[in-house]
UniProtKB/TrEMBL annotation:
Short name of one Pfam family: RNase_T
Keyword Chloroplast: no
Alphabetical keyword list: ATP-binding, Exonuclease, Helicase, Hydrolase, Nuclease, Nucleotide-binding
PROSITE patterns: HELICASE_ATP_BIND_2
A GO MF label: 3'-5' exonuclease activity
Role noted for this protein: 3'-5' exonuclease.
Name recorded for this polypeptide: 3'-5' exonuclease DinG
Entry EC number(s): 3.1.-.-
SMART domains the UniProt entry points to: DEXDc (SM00487), EXOIII (SM00479), HELICc2 (SM00491)
Gene: dinG
Alphabetized InterPro entries for the sequence: ATP-dep_Helicase_C, DinG, DinG/Rad3-like, DnaQ, Helic_SF1/SF2_ATP-bd_DinG/Rad3, Helicase/UvrB_N, Helicase_ATP-bd, P-loop_NTPase
Amino acid sequence: MTTFAIVDLETTGNAASKGDRIIEIGIVLLSEDGEVLQEFSSLVYPERDIPPFISSLTGIQEEDVLDAPLFSEVVDDIYQLMKNSYIVAHNIEFDLGFLNEEFKRCGYPALHNAFIDTVELSRIMLPMAPSFKLGQLSEQLGMGHDRPHRALSDAQATTDLFSFLFARLAQLPERTLHYLLMIEPKLKSELRPFIQVAIEERRYQSKKDEPYDLWHGIPVKGVKRPATSTYKKLPPFEEWIHEVYDSEKGLSNLFDDYESREGQKEMSVSIYRALTEENHALIEAGTGTGKSVAYLLAASYVALQKGRRLLVTTHTTALQKQLLEEEIPRIEKLFHRPIQAVLYKGRGHYISLVHFAYELEHSSQDNYDIALTKAMILVWLTETTTGDVDEIQLPSNGRQFWHKVSSEQSTKTVHLHVGEASFYDWARKKAEKADLIISNHALFSLDIMSEEERLPVYDHVIIDEAHHLEAVASRYFGVQFNYRELQRQLSQLTELYQRKVYNGLGLPEDFFKEISKCQKIVDVAKEELNQWSRYMFQHLKRRQRRDKSSKSDLGRLQQSFQDDLSDPFFRTSKDMCDRFLSSLRQLMHGMERMHNHLALTSKLVDDSSVAVLLSRVEGQVSFCRQVIERLDRYFTIDAESSAKWLEVEGEGASNAVYLFSEPLDVADRLNKQLFQKKKSVILTSATLSTNQSFEYVKRAIGLSGSPRLKEKVIASPYAFDEQVRVMVPDDFPDIRKHPEEYIHAISEAIYSMAYVTKGRMLVLFTSYEMLRKTYALLREFIDPEEFMIFAQGVSSGSRDRLKKNFQAFDQAILLGTSSFWEGVDIPGDDLSCLMMVRLPFQPPDQPLQSMQDRKLKEEGKNPFMERSLPHAILRFKQGFGRLIRSSTDRGVVFICDQRIMEARYGKYFLSSIPKVPVSYKSTRDLIVEMEEWM
């Protein structure tokens, strides 16, 4: 009989090889029919100290293990329990590594049993799970987990998870199981016998009611098409909107905590009028207005009643998710029919089933990450209705594989018999029939600047988080290059030049000579790119040592590129780029010859592989053409109208180089390609005005002087004067004269305030360098047992990961720069204090900023008043908005920059936020005041 020994350990650290030891072990012995046969649990004396962090995590203190047995005293019980079983653990390499180290120490042979890793199995069976940590999986699946980070409780939770995953395996379609069997030898877990049993059981079950369709031999979740029917009309808008906001059948019936907000209704009415009268609108809606519901009500009414498709574009995926999963399903109940709303993304987000089927048939050379990625995608296809990669948590190298199977690989000129089997086509068709299309600023900007249509046709658009529009449009009207990405794409090219890929297709010997030539050209191109990137990297590093280059907010070294052939650096860079592009041109011609051979073969051979390979060659020719066009453009763009610069990772690989160019002004382009072409564009955000005026944002995005523009500012309903205190210390050192003392003062203030607020602090920096120095200083004198400190760009993880880590600890401090000034919601008690280290003026040495300033001076304008100040005020408002995210939040905004009180322009910052009490005193007095108020 097969048994499973499900084990979990608590240890003094992560590395058995460095002397870390077991402090607790828990084992559950499970039969193959799911019966718990035996449980074992014991504390273990580790013969070394338990670190404070481990005690904090597990609750196991030194005194708890003083009378516990040595591992050698319980080793025989453990060994006998496990030696004839499959070993199962959540991250098997960790637990089995520690156990075998202890067995060896006690004179027992290492266990080499068959094993199953429930992390790996979870990734395959639950590919859409947001996290694969044991506690979060248990919570997500509604399983009890009483004592996380205690060995027996974790082993019991792993047992429940293991049973669930095996049940899920048994429910998979037979064809999916067959594909998993092909992939299984490359996985860590030894799943073959269990997959074979599942196949046998599925073989004799009825397939009649299975909710799957078969496309290219792959089971995919069947999608029911909504039936079309007629719906009765809604009452006139004025009558309907009154009922929505003011009657018991309206919003109050949909939201448990609904509060009537006059500003929200006013916003709906303003947007409806702008859409129906075909005007543009700028609407600033303060925090708590409920702007997404306000504009969705107006947009949905217009779409359903007038039959107009509307586009809603946002900057963040979090807001897109909120609109689709929370807001639209709720307000839909106020209409007499469903709202057809779809999330629409670029081609690269959607899987191509024909390309994935091709990759499944060519799995023999896969490494572990690719095998795991294929297994995850196979299971995901039985669950997804969108085919969107953002639903699935791919492993580190899985993204590279995704590029091979995304819809970007399918070209218009190569017929792949895709038809109904393309998720991208399905998304496009759904969008063309939709009432509302939800998209993002990046795809929206690409659509308005590109000759190729990236979105279905629309004439009315609502731009939420509109304060990002200028920056995103500027990025897409410019050029960006990333050395690593270029190298990745060149490496992917080489897969097309392997002879074995084309075996059995009856291609002539000339074709194989061609692929051999192409491989040599790619090797030359990669070397040319390496030399060029290394040259730029070393130049910038030398310059940094000599005269301190500026740094981006991510800490990269920067240098402006001037279009000047007399500059040796520019001239040499251009020459080296030309050599690289010459190789790409040769490669493009070689692939065109490959394409001709394949096109001829596709007419003679009935093999779907030929069409797949033909489309990939065509896609790579297109890639080479784009690189050539964009790099040619980069080195010939008019210096008067754009800023060009390069960045390198200061501590990174010796050729990790990034090239950027952006137009100095996108106003004219946006005016011509957006505002003049679309019937109605609504821009909304909590931060669009400066000093009660929209003049800055109108100039920036091309709306100055527009006769069709309506403007409105809607105040926040929150009682900021009761919820917020602004505090400014008057005793900080002068940062220009004493920068190091200033950092010491910041660090001391953070430490003192953290005691008052019990952590729960977000500290916003305008300089990555200052953030890094402050973090290093805080780490010197703050005990991790007192406060956990997380820092953007220093602590590992994305912005969202840092935010989650910050919220997971009771007493934590989060240091952020750039992206943390906006778009981060930390509501409730998780955040009580927001510190702004400096007013958020952009550093004047940033390439784009310095070029924009120079241009404004040449036009006889004041760069500070025209651009720097209003831009800083908008950032300040965004930073201020991080603190109060609900009507019950309370907190302190601590601004370490005395310019807000002493400079002539300081009043503009304070007048841009709601009226709140402001204290200007010594740091000591402010902390006393804070303690009393909190």
